[in-house]
Amino acid sequence: MLARAVRVAAIKGIEVRLDPSVVLLAVLVAVLFATRFLDGFAPAMAFTMAGIGSLLVVATTFAHELAHALEARHRGLEVESITLLLFGGVTEMHASGQSARDELAIAAVGPYVSLVCGAAFGLIATFTPDLLPSTVADPVAEVAGLLGWWNVLLALFNIVPGAPLDGGRVLRALLWMLLRDRLRALRISVRAGQVLGFGLVGTGVWVVASGALPLIPSLVGAFVLATTGLFIANAAQRELRNAELDEVLTGRTIRDLVATFPTPWPADQRVADGHARLVEADALDGELLTIDHPDGRIGAVEVASIGSDGGDHDATRTVGELGTDVTDLPAIDVDADLHALVDTFQGEHRIVRVTRDGLTIGALTEREVARALERLRRAGTRAGRPKDDAVTSGEVPM
Ligand SMILES: [Zn+2]
Question: Are 173 and 103 in contact (CB under 8 A)?
Answer without folding.
Answer: yes
